[in-house]
Amino acid sequence: MIKRKQDGFTLSEVLITLAVVGTVALLVLPGLIKDTNNKAMMSNLQSAVSTLNNAIQNEIITKGARSIDDTDIKSDPETFLQTLDVSRISKTDTFADSYKSMGGTAVAKPAVAAAATLKNGVAVGLRTYNDPNSSAHTLNSTSCTIVYIDTNGKNAPNIVGVDLFALKLTWATLVLETSDKPYHMGDLGAFPGGALGDSRSNPTISTVKTKCGIGDPASCYFLVERTSFDPNYIENAE
After folding, report:
1. What CA–CA distance (Å, rounded) separates 164 from 155?
2. What per-residue confidence (pLDDT) applies to 3?
3. Strand runs labelled E in 114-163
4. Distance between CA 51 and CA 86 in Å, rounded?
5. Is the pLDDT of residue 17 over 80?
6. Strand, coil or helix: 65
7. Cα torsion at 225, 228, 231, 236 (round to 10°)?
8. Quick check: 159 and 129 in contact, CB under 8 A?
9. Is the N end or the C end of the chain the one with fewer CB atoms within 10 Å?
10. Is the pTM of this model over 0.85?
11. Under a CB-based contact definition with an 8 Å cutoff, are residues 86 and 116 in contact?
């Protein structure tokens, strides 16, 4: 009688294989999920900055503004925010109640004059800021608008540099004494020195990284802009 060879795997082999696959998945999936989330956060941030920039330029052109004083950006920020695709306007209930730095220390909730949640879940807040380093500027440039962006609103993780960032809306055309780069009324971007209120140019990247790590949202955005919205902006910023 001819015996036929059995093809296939035994039950124990299948169980061992499943155990190995499960272990690998447990090790790999958290990293993949984190990478995907980081890319989504950067995509939301870049989209929000682009949307805001378009709205700012449209406001300036529509009002025929010669200064930010002639726009709702300064005089009526809530009205300006309503030009965006918003689902809700609320300066008290737009951002999370508390945030943390990447190092785990507590960071204050953004203090804003007006804020809105966009229909895609992104939170945007505006705050008038008097620049303490005005001596480094020419012309009437002692003030600006700080724009806070939380890429997923009140939802976790609520960490500065992960979902919360800050950038500067320039009020006046100026030239920094330490740089030939001009800043024009309505420009939206990183603070020149990489930190809230810092008007210096050409900061040390290691210093900016340190400030980002301890919870300065403007320092984090400086690095993001420098790396063209790279999800791994801290590691790749030079």
Report:
1. 11
2. 53
3. 114-118, 123-130, 143-150
4. 12
5. no
6. coil
7. -90
8. no
9. N
10. no
11. yes
